[in-house]
C-alpha cells in the first residue's frame, strides 16, 4: 500500500473513531438498555425498517447514473452509500464529508469520473426534492383532514405548526449559506472538492446532469419512486415506536412529524451526530401532534438514537472490512 493511501485511510479511521466516541459519551447507556427492554425483540423491526429505507435509497442512487454507467451491483452501492451517510452523521463537515467519501470509494469501479460526481449530485438533489414533496403532501393531507388522527389531537395546532416548520425550512436553507459555507471552505474537503472540479471538468459534470434530467425519463422516474419510498418507509419507525408504546397514529401525521424532525437535523448538521438537536426536534414535533408526555418523548428519542448508533457501528465496520479488500479503494498515487 502506498504511503498516501495509508495516511488517508488512517486519518479517516481516526476521525470516525473520535466522532463516534463523542457520540457514545453523550449517550446514557442505562436508558438505552431500559428502552430496548421495554419493547424487546420488536426493536429488530425498527432496524429492518431502516435497512429497507437505506436499500431503497441505494436503488434510487443506482438510477441516478447514466444508463451505460449502471454497472455496479446494488449491494456495492448500498455499502458505499451507507459508509458515506454514516460519515455524514459523525463529522462536522456533515453531508460534504459523506459525499466526498462516496466519490472517493467509487473511483476504482470502472465508471467515468464525471458520471460518479454527477450521480452523487443528482441523488442529493432528488433526495431533497422528494423530501420536500413528501413533507408538503403530508402537511396538506393532515391540514385538510376533517377528523383528528389522534383522539386527543389538537387540530387547531396545525396552522402554527405549519408556519413554524416552513419558517424553519427557510432558516435552514439560508442558514446553510451563513455557517456551512465558511465551515466548508475552511475544511480540507473544500480543497479536495475544488481539485475534483478542476480535474474532472465542471462543464462535463453539468452536461451529464442536464442529459439525465432531459433524456433519461426512466432513470428520473425510478430514482424519484425509490427516494419517495425511502422517506416513507423511514418515517414508519416513529409510527411503530408509538404503536409499541400504546399510541396509534395516522400515517400522514407521522410522516409530517418525521419530515419536521429531518429539518431540525439539517439545521444542526454541523454538530456530530446532531447531538441534542434531534432530541429537541423529536420533542417539538411530537408536541405539535398532541404528544407531550415526557416519558414517551424520552423513549422515542432513545430508541431512535440507539438505532442510529447501531447503523453507525455497522458503517464503521463495513468501512474497515471494505477497505482491506484489494481493489475496493483507489490507489492514491
From TrEMBL:
Which ranges does the record mark as transmembrane?
7-27, 39-61, 116-141, 161-179, 219-245, 251-272, 308-323
Q: Which GO terms describe its cellular component?
A: plasma membrane
Cellular localisation: Cell membrane
**Which domain of life does the UniProt lineage start with?**
Bacteria
InterPro entries the record matches:
L-PG_synthase/AglD
Q: Does the keyword Cell membrane apply?
A: yes
**UniProt membrane topology term:** Multi-pass membrane protein
Recite the UniProt keywords alphabetically: Cell membrane, Membrane, Transmembrane, Transmembrane helix
Report the NCBIfam families cross-referenced here: flippase-like domain (TIGR00374)
| Record protein name field | Flippase-like domain-containing protein
Which organism was this protein described from?
A: Dyadobacter flavalbus
Amino acid at each position: 500500500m502506498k504511503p498516501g493511501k495509508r495516511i488517508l485511510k488512517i486519518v479517516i479511521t481516526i476521525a470516525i473513531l473520535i466522532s463516534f466516541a463523542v457520540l457514545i459519551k453523550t449517550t446514557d447507556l442505562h436508558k438505552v438498555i431500559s428502552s430496548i427492554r421495554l419493547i424487546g425483540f420488536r426493536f429488530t423491526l425498527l432496524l429492518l425498517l431502516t435497512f429497507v429505507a437505506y436499500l431503497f435509497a441505494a436503488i434510487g442512487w443506482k438510477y441516478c447514473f447514466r444508463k451505460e454507467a449502471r454497472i455496479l451491483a446494488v449491494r456495492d452501492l448500498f455499502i458505499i452509500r451507507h459508509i458515506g451517510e454514516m460519515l455524514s452523521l459523525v463529522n462536522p463537515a456533515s453531508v460534504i464529508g459523506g459525499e466526498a467519501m462516496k466519490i472517493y470509494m467509487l473511483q476504482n469501479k470502472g465508471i467515468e469520473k464525471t458520471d460518479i460526481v454527477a450521480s452523487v449530485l443528482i441523488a442529493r438533489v432528488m433526495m431533497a426534492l422528494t423530501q420536500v414533496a413528501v413533507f408538503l403532501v403530508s402537511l396538506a393531507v393532515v391540514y385538510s383532514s376533517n377528523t383528528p388522527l389522534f383522539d386527543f389531537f389538537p387540530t387547531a395546532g396545525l396552522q402554527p405548526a405549519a408556519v413554524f416548520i416552513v419558517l424553519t425550512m427557510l432558516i435552514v436553507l439560508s442558514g446553510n449559506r451563513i455557517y456551512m459555507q465558511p465551515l466548508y471552505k475552511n475544511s480540507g474537503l473544500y480543497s479536495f472538492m475544488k481539485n475534483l472540479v478542476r480535474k474532472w471538468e465542471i462543464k462535463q459534470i453539468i452536461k451529464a446532469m442536464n442529459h439525465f434530467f432531459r433524456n433519461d425519463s426512466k432513470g428520473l422516474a425510478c430514482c424519484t419512486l425509490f427516494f419517495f419510498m425511502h422517506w416513507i418507509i423511514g418515517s414508519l419507525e416513529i409510527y411503530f415506536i408509538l404503536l409499541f408504546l400504546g399510541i396509534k397514529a395516522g400515517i400522514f401525521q407521522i410522516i409530517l412529524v418525521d419530515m419536521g424532525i429531518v429539518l431540525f437535523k439539517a439545521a444542526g448538521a454541523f454538530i456530530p451526530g446532531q447531538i441534542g438537536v434531534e432530541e429537541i426536534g423529536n420533542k417539538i414535533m411530537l408536541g405539535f401532534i398532541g404528544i407531550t408526555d415526557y416519558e414517551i418523548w424520552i423513549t422515542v428519542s432513545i430508541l431512535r438514537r440507539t438505532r442510529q448508533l447501531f447503523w453507525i457501528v455497522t458503517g464503521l465496520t463495513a468501512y474497515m472490512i471494505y477497505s482491506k479488500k484489494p481493489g475496493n479503494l483507489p490507489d492514491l498515487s
